[in-house]
């Protein structure tokens, strides 16, 4: 839901689709194989985390912390993430 109580539109985005077509406050589902640049652009344009799906099921979510860590070169294993 948006801050105004409206549902967020869902957008299925595939590699190669036009990033400019993404609207503010839409949820984007895309492949985990997107580039860092594409992920950041999706996050910037929508203002929402990026949902990652592979062959149907949701496999992850990219939020601001994930982008910050990647840009800083901090690669955490699942064990390290669980302990933080």
Architecture overview:
The chain is of the alpha/beta class. The protein has one domain: Alpha-Beta Complex (CBS domain Like), CATH 3.90.1280. It has 3 helices and 4 strands, in the order ββαββαα. It has helices spanning 36-46, 64-71, 78-83; strands at residues 10-12, 27-30, 50-53, 58-62. The chain has a 4-stranded mixed sheet with strand order 1-2-3-4. Residues 79-84 have low confidence and may be disordered.
- The number of distinct structural domains comes to 1
Cα Rg:
14 Å
Count the helices. How many?
A: 3
Measured as a percent range, the helix fraction is 25-40%
Q: How much strand?
A: 15-25%
For the record, the CATH architecture stands as: Alpha-Beta Complex
Reading side by side through the largest sheet, how are the strands ordered?
Answer: 1-2-3-4
Low-confidence stretches: 79-84
Distance between the termini: 29 Å
CATH topology, anyone? CBS domain Like
Task: Give the biggest beta sheet.
Answer: 4 strands, mixed
Q: What overall geometry do the principal axes of the alpha carbons give?
A: globular
- Overall pLDDT: 85
Tell me the total number of β-strands. Answer: 4
Structural class given helices, strands, pairing? alpha/beta
What is the CATH first-level class name? Alpha Beta
């Amino acid at each position: 839901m948006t801050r105004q109580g409206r549902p967020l539109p869902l957008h299925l985005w595939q590699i190669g689709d036009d990033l400019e077509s993404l609207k503010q406050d839409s949820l984007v589902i895309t492949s985990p194989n997107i580039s860092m640049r594409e992920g950041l652009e999706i996050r910037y344009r929508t203002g929402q985390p990026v949902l990652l799906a592979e062959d149907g099921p949701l496999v992850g979510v990219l939020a601001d912390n994930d982008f910050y860590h990647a840009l800083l070169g901090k690669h955490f294993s699942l064990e390290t993430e669980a302990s933080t």
